Amino acid sequence: MRQLFLGCAVWGFHGWEGSFYPINCNRKEYLRLYSQRLYSVEGNTVFYSIPTTEQLLSWREHTHSQFRFCIKIPKNISHMGSLKDQCGAAIDFARHIEHGLKDRLGPFFLQLPPAYTAAKGGDLSRFLNHWKRECGLPISVEVRHLSWYEDHFHQRLDRMLNLLGHGRVILDTRPVYEGPVGGQDASVNKKPKVPIVESCTNQYAFVRLICHPQADVNEPYFHYWAVRVLDWMKQGKRVFFFLHCPQEAHSVHYARRFQELLEGLEPSVPSLPWNDIPKWGLFD
Prior knowledge:
The protein is α/β, with parallel strands linked by helices. The protein has helices at about 30-35, 55-60, 75-80, 85-100, 120-135, 150-165, 175-180, 220-235, 250-265, and strands at about 5-10, 40-45, 70, 110, 140, 165-170, 205-210, 240-245.
């Protein structure tokens, strides 16, 4: 069974043509081409628009059996006040996604609003308990308000996630904050500056590494996470690892660089399907 699912936030980036995708390829082929190179993708577009059943079936048809979509909970559920009031809508959404993607579905991804403080822990608990009871699908939570990183609340959150078998999104924004100024100039929405919490509260880890556009800045962080990922894999855990860059053109190439480091440290790490494709070639 595959343990490492490496990917980026999106697959539909036109600027990858000529380096990641063939030049002048049909945009309808982007997902198929993406899945022939990487193993996972964040379903970030779903945050703004829920795909139809037909779209989900198409996504499944365009990907191979080992590929996984990590679908983000829509904004009109996660960012519209109390989560407890959205429990029904969340379960309906989860069942809709599961019906369409079936075995291509990885963990869901709940990103909490920046203003959602640890004082709302009871609301989050009710939502996650309802999710566990009604659908039981894997879900990981990303907290952004700094109050969640205080020792007391950090420990309470980890205990709750552990008891429910849910995951915690590990967000690492250090490259864009510790690197040269301007790392997020291309971003409309800046990523939060939050501490690193390496909690793995169930049988999979979910990491989002926000990379700096200047390639050499990321090397220490790539090495840091390569060691951690290999450790998780040795423990038998699955790892969903996503690399973002404010200048999206770099993201897929950073993913490949990270894979190279992993294979350099541990040759038994399975290679990317990308490695087996001739330049601009496609799988049969």
